[in-house]
Design brief:
The protein is mainly β. The protein is built from 2 helices and 34 strands. It has 2 domains: 265 residues, 5 Propeller (Tachylectin-2, Chain A), CATH 2.115.10.20; 192 residues, Jelly Rolls (Sandwich). Strands 22, 24, 25, 26, 27, 28, 29, 30, 31, 32, 33 and 34 form a 12-stranded antiparallel beta sheet that branches.
Length: 483
C-alpha cells in the first residue's frame, strides 16, 4: 500500500501546487524543528525537503509547553510568487501567525502575528480584488493584510457545519469554477471525524451545504483506516483533483489502538453537479523502507526532531566526527527538558538500532509518545536496562551487566493475529547486542500503552536516542520497516 502517502505522525496536511511540483506541510506540536515540508511530483511519493520553523524564535516552545500543544494545523499556499504558511501556536499566547518563503525548503521568515484573529486552524485565500481572507475553526472569517497581520472590520461567522456535528474546524476556502467552496472537518478528530463542504457565490458566502455531506468519513465502518478528516484539495497540472487528509490505522482488539499518530492519506476527487466526490484511497505496491544515518553530516537531516528545542550545546555532530553527541540536561525521558533526538515511527512493524558509547554518561534508545508514556533501553554504569513509563507508573523492567560500546535495538511487531478482543496492537521488544555478537532480548512489552487511546493528545510515536546523564555518543542509527 502506498497509502498513507506520508506515514507516521503527519496530521493536518495542507498542500499546494506550483507548476509540476506539489508541496505539503503538517502539524508538529511540541517538536523542534516545526512544520515538516514535503515535495512530490505525483502526490504519492513524498520527500521531506525541510522544516519551515527552524529557529526557536519562530516556534515559541519552552520547557513549559505541554506535549500535544505547540504548533497546530498549517495552511500552505502559493500566491504572488511567494509561499505563505499560516499556523496556530496554541502555547504562550502565540496565536495565529504567518510565515513566508520563496523556497519552501527554507529559509522561512520570522512570524507575522495576527493578534486580532482568534481560533485555530487558520486558512488563507485571496480573491480577484486582492483581498486576503483568513478563515478559522468555528467557522469565522477575517479580512487581513498578510504582510502586516492587520485585520479589517469584524470577524464574520460563515458556517457552523452540519447541525449536530461537533467541532467544525480545519476550514479551507477555494475558488473553483463559478463557486467559492468552504471545506471543513467536523465530528472531532477521533472516530467520528469527517469532511464536509459548502459553496457560495463569494468568499464571504452565503454558503449552501453539499447535500451529500460528509463527503468523506469512515465513521461507523470496518475500514482499516479510521478518523479520516482534516483535508485539503489540490488540482494536478492535468486538471485532475485530489484530496489529502489525515487518518489513523488502529490495531489490536477493541477499542483499537493507533500508535503512529494521525497520518497523511490521498484519494482522488471527481466532480458531480458541482460537488466533489471522494474516491477510494489510492493504493499501489510500495517498496520496503529503510534509512541509515551515519551522522557524517554536520547538520542533522530534516527527519530528526526533538521535544521543544535542540541546541548545539546539547546535541552536536561536531564533538566527535561521524558521531552524534548528546550532553544531558534533563535526567530521564520523563523530563520535558530531556535531550532526545528521534524520527517518527512510520511503519506498523519496524526495527531501530543504534551503536552507543556510554563511556562518559548514560543514555539510550527510546520509543516516545510523551513524557508520561515511553519505553526505553538505557546503557551506562556497566549496565543496560529497559525502563517503562506509563501514566503515573515507572518501572525498570529488566537489567543486566554490559559495558563498552553496545548496539541497542528496538523491534516493533504489529499483532497480525488477535489472541482475543483485548489483544494489543503490537509488541515492542528491546535487545542489546554486545561486541562479541551476543544478542539478548531484555523485554517484550505490549504496545497499547504507547498509543493515542491510552496517552491521549494529538501526536504519535517517535523513536530516537537520548542522554540521561553526562555525555553519550551515537555512531549510527538504523531504521527499517518490518521486523
Ligand atoms: C487541529 C484540528 C484537528 O487543530 O486536530 O483533526 C487539531 N483536526 O483541526 C490538532 O491537530
Amino acid at each position: 500500500m502506498t497509502n498513507p502517502v506520508i506515514p507516521g505522525m503527519h496530521p493536518d496536511p495542507s498542500v499546494c501546487r506550483v507548476g509540476e511540483d506539489y508541496y505539503l506541510v503538517c502539524s508538529s506540536f511540541e517538536y523542534f524543528p516545526g512544520i515538516p515540508v514535503f515535495h512530490s511530483r505525483d502526490l504519492v511519493n513524498w520527500t521531506q525537503i525541510g522544516n519551515a520553523l527552524t529557529r526557536p524564535s519562530q516556534l515559541l516552545l519552552t520547557a513549559e509547553t505541554p506535549s500535544s500543544a505547540g504548533i497546530y494545523a498549517p495552511t500552505l499556499r502559493h500566491h504572488d510568487g511567494r509561499f505563505w504558511l499560516i499556523v496556530t501556536s496554541v502555547s504562550h499566547g502565540g496565536g495565529n501567525m504567518i510565515f513566508t518563503a520563496t523556497d519552501p525548503a527554507g529559509p522561512w521568515s520570522d512570524p507575522i502575528p495576527l493578534p486580532a484573529v482568534g481560533g485555530i486552524d487558520p486558512d488563507l485565500a485571496w480573491d480577484d480584488e486582492g483581498n486576503c481572507w483568513c478563515t478559522v475553526a468555528g467557522v469565522s472569517q477575517y479580512r487581513v493584510d498578510p504582510t502586516s497581520g492587520e485585520t479589517f472590520g469584524e470577524p464574520r461567522r460563515l458556517w457552523s457545519g452540519t447541525p449536530g456535528a461537533k467541532a467544525p474546524e480545519a476550514p479551507h476556502l477555494y475558488r473553483i469554477g463559478d463557486h467559492w467552496y468552504l471545506m471543513i472537518a467536523e465530528g472531532g478528530t477521533e472516530r467520528g471525524h469527517g469532511v464536509s463542504i459548502a459553496r457560495g457565490p463569494s468568499p464571504q458566502g452565503p454558503f449552501e451545504p453539499c447535500p451529500a455531506n460528509p463527503i468523506l468519513s469512515h465513521r461507523s465502518t470496518d475500514e482499516p483506516v479510521q478518523n479520516t478528516g482534516h483535508a485539503d484539495l489540490v488540482q494536478g497540472p492535468d486538471g485532475s483533483w485530489w484530496m489529502v487528509f489525515l487518518g489513523v490505522r488502529p490495531g489490536g482488539g477493541t477499542p483499537g489502538w493507533h500508535v503512529l499518530g494521525r497520518e497523511t492519506f490521498l484519494a482522488p476527487v471527481s466532480w458531480v453537479d458541482g460537488w466533489p466526490v471522494v474516491g477510494d484511497l489510492v493504493s499501489a505496491p510500495a517498496s520496503e523502507f529503510s534509512d541509515h544515518d551515519d551522522f557524517e553530516d554536520s547538520d542533522l537531516r530534516p527527519c530528526w526532531i526533538s521535544p521543544r528545542d535542540r541546541s548545539e550545546q546539547h546535541c552536536t555532530t561536531k564533538d566527535r566526527a561521524g558521531w552524534l553527541t548528546l550532553h544531558a540536561r534533563g535526567s530521564t525521558m520523563d523530563d520535558p527538558a530531556v535531550v532526545f533526538v528521534g524520527r517518527r515511527q512510520q511503519h506498523l512493524s519496524c526495527t531501530a538500532r543504534t551503536l552507543i558509547d556510554p563511556a562518559a554518561g548514560s543514555g539510550g534508545l527510546a520509543v516516545r509518545f510523551d513524557e508520561e508514556h515511553h519505553y526505553e533501553i538505557e546503557a551506562g554504569s556497566g549496565e543496560v536496562r529497559v525502563i517503562a513509563r506509563v501514566g503515573p507508573l515507572r518501572t525498570i523492567v529488566a537489567a543486566r551487566p554490559a559495558a563498552g560500546p553496545l548496539v541497542l535495538s528496538v523491534r516493533v511487531e504489529e499483532a497480525r493475529e488477535l489472541r482475543d478482543a483485548r489483544s494489543g496492537p503490537d509488541t515492542i521488544s528491546f535487545s542489546v547486542e554486545e561486541p562479541d555478537g551476543t544478542v539478548t532480548v531484555l523485554a517484550a512489552l505490549d504496545g497499547r500503552y504507547l498509543s493515542t487511546e491510552v496517552a491521549g493528545g494529538f501526536t504519535g510515536r517517535v523513536i530516537g536516542v537520548y542522554a540521561a546523564t553526562g555525555t553519550v555518543h551515537f555512531d549510527w542509527f538504523d531504521y527499517q520497516q518490518g521486523s
